[in-house]
Amino acid sequence: MQHRHLLPNEIDLLVDHESGFGVQPLREHVRDCPDCRARLALAERVVGSLAEVPLFAPRVGMADRIMSRVPVFVPWHVAARDAVVQWVPTSGPARALAAALVAVVGSIVTGVTLWVATRGDMLATVTGLVGEEARSAATNAAGDVVVALFGNQVVSAVQQVGPLGIAFAAGGFLVASVATVLGLRLIAASSRARS
Amino acid sequence: MPPIPVLDLANLPDADVVALAQKGREPAYRELIRRYERPVFSLVYRMVRDRELAEDLSQDTFVKVLTHIEKYRSEFKFSSWLFKIANNVAIDHLRRRQLDTISMEGSPHATTSDLAEATSFELATQDETPLQELEARELGSEIERAISQLRPEYRACILLRHVEDKSYEEIAATLDLPLGTVKTYIHRARHELRKLLEHVREGFGPVTEEPA
Question: What predicted TM-score, i.e. pTM, was given to this entire model?
Answer without folding.
Answer: 0.63
